[in-house]
Design brief:
This protein is of the alpha/beta class and 401 residues long. The chain contains 15 helices and 14 strands. The chain is globular and about 70 Å long.
Amino acid sequence: MKPVSGSQMKWEIFCRAVDNYGDVGVCWRLACALVAEHGVDVRLWVDDWKTLSRVCPQAVSDGARVAGVELRRWANPFPMEEPADVVIEAFSCDLPKEHERAMAERKRPPIWVNLEYLSAEEWVLGCHGLSSPHPEWPLTKTFLFPGFLEGTGGLILEEGLLYRRDRMLEAQSRADWLRAFTREPLREDALVVSLFGYEPFELAELLHYWEEGERPILLLVPEGRSLAGLERVLGIALPLGEEVRRGALRVVALPFTDQEGFDALLWRCDLNLVRGEDSFVRAQWAARPFVWNIYPQKDGAHFVKLDAFLALYSAGLRTDAANALIAFWRAWNGRGDTVAAWPAFVHALPELENHARSWCAALAGRPSLVTTFWQFVDTSFKKLDKIPPLQNFDGLGNPPD
């Protein structure tokens, strides 16, 4: 069998929408980066087409090809296709059984990878790259973990992203950029904040504190779950594009945007309140102070992940700045008093901004998740080329005699 390599490889990614836009957003970014940086043919299976169409408005029909990625509906019954050379199972979404069987029936099984959720926990280092045999068929699945340290899979960072960020910030002042959202110029000491979260604790109390404060705050809220939650808290409807004023607080509801528009929002704000995984990572590439609203789990299990990242991220900060960061992040997620934690946190923002730039530069110096995937697959195919392909597979997991 002629070896498959480079641009000849066919890849496919399976994704179930669980965390609103986050899971689909990660898979869409990964698919686009694989095409742009390595020229491979990528097929993306998504079970929630409505969510995909918000992240990628060009996803108008099953089979559409956008940015070089073939977009497919993961429907039931599953529309069978020849399995690709590389199969990525995103976040343990469980592949269709008929597709697993078709993978096993190939003379040379595909490289099968499970893309795990992002975590800063120490155990990730020991699990990244581990493999597990299929209980029934001659297939092996390898688990790749994104991460922040050497020895993990890294983060999705598209080639040229940070360069585009810096060029955009140089080309247009924030005052000019804000004219699209605000009726009046901001004071020089105004704080511009983006809100893209779940249901942060004590949001009503914090908004009231901002209203009564002396420092002007402009809160930019993209359309979606965050905006709906904010409307409930304020008790009013927020028309898209319209500004609402309450004391020192100005709120603008932004229309839903694509991923590039969301990145631009994060780049321009003084503070980004983000959530989940995708916007959490993009906030780090923005090199701005941010607060993570982590996806809540039963029995507070998500605080283990939150504290693991905080321990990593706060290293290098002065003690008072680190304490302010940790206190506000934990309060934002339900453990602490958000209003009480705010003054120290906002006082620490200048140091946190410098820290965010240093953190971003350090992360960018490591291999990206796209590079990790590519290197793993390339190495795996070279190993497979030395192994004779299976013959006469009987479909029951039994190798030939």
